[in-house]
Amino acid sequence: MRRRDFLTTALTAASASSLPALAQNSEPVVKRKGRLKQCVMRANFDPKMSLEDICREASKRGVAGMDLVAPKDWPVLKKYGMIPTMAGAGAVTFQDGVIRKELHDKLEKSVHDSLDECAAGGCPNMITVGGQRRGMSYEEGADNAVAFFNRVKAHAEDKNVTICMEVMNSKYMDPLIGRYDQICDHVAWGVDVCKRVNSPRVKILFDIYHVQIMDGNLVANIRDNFPWIAHFHTGGVPGRHELDDTQELNYRFIAKAIADLGFTGYIAHEYRPAPGRDPLKSLDQALEIMDV
Fold first, then answer.
1. Pairwise CA distance, residues 279 & 157, whole Å
2. Around 114, how many Cα atoms within 13 Å sit in the side-chain half-sphere?
3. N or C: less crowded end of the chain, CB within 10 Å?
């Protein structure tokens, strides 16, 4: 190679190395401010979109990871520089959650298996739910939940994986916008359980959409209960749609409050694009609103 050609090649390589990282479609990766680690869910995207395409689009927008992706698909996330930010609940279901004492043996084995899978796959959190009351009192349900978490907390601590019990709204029967009869339907109930378990690996998933419907007073609730919050979900109220001015919450203010508290976990977008909206434009808007 002639000296001039060598210098040209070297200078080109040097210039390229100083540019932002490129996604696989050669578009620049968005550089986020980094105060909040945002992640996504399948609900944010066109349902016909493949996981590969979802990860490609999310990655180039500076998204950190994705919630509730099956372990078999975690390699696809990692291919695009993201991580699985929250795993599924194993055998725990909305109907039969951790308050069902008669199911504790079965659920315990499933949760142990899921914790092992999370630890091996680099997933920091797994979701869980209290379950439907079906006439059970809040007091009995809390006692049962504490008993269950006491059975699994040592394993969660050993694996460095946080079990996150979601706070949901029990107001709406439509599963797209509510979780009817769920016992963990107020922040205070979930936090009381976590305090009694007293483990750094058993905390709550603070779903902003659900909490606004049931408790309101969002920022005060976040500040007052911050030590017990491990993960956040977003969604516009009403309807669980975009985080823009079509709904009642000021997500920019909420994001600043969470960042100012020094939150180091993940915030996953769980809104569903409203009919007629472009999902990718809605995602761009949500990421920008929360990028504080």
1. 38
2. 27
3. N
Six-digit token pair at 147? 């008993």
Three-state DSSP class for 57?
helix
Each residue's pLDDT tens digit, 224-263: 999 999 999 999 999 999 999 999 999 999 999 999 999 9
Do 285 and 61 meet the contact criterion of CB atoms below 8 Å apart? no
Amino acid code (one letter) for 271? Y
CB-side neighbour CA atoms (13 Å) of 145: 36
200 backbone dihedrals φ, ψ, rounded to 5°? -70, -10
> pTM score > 0.85 for this model?
yes
Region for 50 from its dihedrals, namely left if φ exceeds 0, alpha if ψ lies in -120 to 50, beta otherwise: beta
In the numeric block, which tokens belong to residue 284?
């761009």
Residue 104 sits at the vertex; the CA angle it makes with 68 and 98, to the nearest 5 degrees, is 50
Please identify, in words, the CATH class of the domain defined by 30-290. Answer: alpha beta
The ranges assigned to domains in the chain are: 30-290
DSSP for 125-166, written as a single string: EEEE---B-TT--HHHHHHHHHHHHHHHHHHHHHHT-EEEEE
Q: Which amino acid is at 234?
A: T
